[in-house]
Amino acid sequence: MFAFTDENGCFVELHFNKGPFEIPPKHVLVFVFHQGKWLCTINKRGVEFPGGKVEPGETLEEAAIREVYEETAIHISDLEWFAYYVVHDERPFSKAVFTAKVDKIDEFVNRHETLGRIWLTQEELEGHPNLSFYMKDEGMKKMLQEVKINEREWQY
């Protein structure tokens, strides 16, 4: 387990296993790396990895696939469990983190849930001026470090 305090002052526990869960994940986050770049969304909070809430009756995996498409117009495949984290806020919550590969890229149109998508190299991601708060915290740095260490074959 890796523990840190986020920018909102919340204690966060980051785990690189698949449970058991103190708090079952009801949110997902997905790392998609394609042709040397990370898939990110652009929204009011800033630039961040795609993700969101699990809808009633939906599995974590189904939510991950749906959220990536709704936010970026990207179809993903080869979804793999990567980590989960628990945020000890007033109402504690947990997020499941997955990695995935690009299956198909559709044209991004205004009906998607974000302002757009952006592909960033590792260097561009680390130095981007408009990252959302959670993209700057110690947990994100640790997850990106672990992704690199445990990198699987991302591209076909």
UniProtKB/TrEMBL annotation:
InterPro entries listed in its UniProt record: Nudix_hydrolase (IPR020476), NUDIX_hydrolase-like_dom_sf (IPR015797), NUDIX_hydrolase_dom (IPR000086), Nudix_YtkD (IPR014078)
Domain Nudix hydrolase: 23-144
Top-level taxon in the UniProt lineage: Bacteria
Keywords, alphabetical: Hydrolase
Gene3D superfamilies recorded: Nucleoside Triphosphate Pyrophosphohydrolase (3.90.79.10)
Pfam families: NUDIX (PF00293)
GO-annotated molecular function: hydrolase activity
The family this protein is said to belong to: Belongs to the Nudix hydrolase family.
Identification of the protein by name: NUDIX domain-containing protein
Organism encoding this protein: Ureibacillus yapensis
